[in-house]
Task: structure prediction
Amino acid sequence: MEDSRQRLRPPSRCRRLVPLWARGACALACFVVVMACQPQAPLEEWTLELEQDTTIGAEPVTLQTALYRPRALGFDHRGNVFVLDAGNHRVQVFDPDGVYLRTIGEAGSGPGQLTDPQGMFVHGDGRVWIADTHNRRIQPYTAGGSPLAPLTLEFFPLDLVVAQDRIFVQRMPQTNMVYGPDPQPLISVLDPSGNLTGGFVEPVSTAIGILYMLENMLALAPAPNGGIAVSNTHFSSRIRAYGIGGSLVREIPVLYKAGAWAPLGRRPAQINDASLARLARTSSALAWDAGRQLFWVLAGYVDQTPEGEWIIGREVYRYNAAGEYRGSLMLPQRAIKIAAGPDGRFWTIDMEGIVRAFRVTDPDTAPQSQP
Result:
């Protein structure tokens, strides 16, 4: 109990960034070199406008709002906001205006307890599923926040999506002296009892050890028609949408601008300053907006300012389910996670661990003028 109270103290800004393994991956990405692809025709462009609406975790903070390494966002049908507060091993629930409602979970390995959870899925009725990473299990909760029996795993889960009677779980890529590939697919499919029923997204083998983890790290989101969407967080510049049975339905190439048309991400061939200046990361985060029927894609390393500062986690791109580009926006701060709320607001977790909601001026949803 004493250790738990100590963790809940408002953390310093430097401690609010990302887990150690994620910081290591980002650091390694800085040394990755990306080759330019064949040029593509510029897309018809419009830029969406944002107005900040709600903030959670900004100063002054309380024990309920002192978020330490938040890793995921979710919503119920009422618009209540679920924040996976990974560093404090809990889920904090707020109303749509950011007022604290309740806490789900606590630190530990017992029933309903969590240890460094990295992923979360929230049903519209308020049921919650947690990728309880360091306990190697899936921890479900009822709509009232009561723990159910955990589903034990043989791997470290990083994220999950629940659709119909299937649980899609992303496994942490295994590394060894050979650096892969893993003997199992990166996405495991479980039934509601936790039994393995299948898997898909085969891992990619690499010739360079430090690239193996980066090559096989994914961002997950629900997909249309009850499936799942994945995007590689460092390479491939694409969204892959799978059906409920795990078959590939659509592949959407993702194009980055960053003020100019930046190159798409590719596996590196060499390391030098010129190629570092072209580094583009596919998707730091991916979200499905059921209301607008759009994917939101958060870009990672995209381009540099004239002063040499990387534009990281600032640009967001949108694609509909058919793969058509539907505009972009520039965030006022760098983000590590994004989410689309049921009320049309756009949510982020920024680099300092603060949760922000924005209202979007959106040509896709603007009322049509009458003749």
Observations:
- Helices lie at 2-7, 20-29, 209-215, 273-276.
- Residues 2-361 form a domain with the Neuraminidase fold (CATH 2.120.10.30).
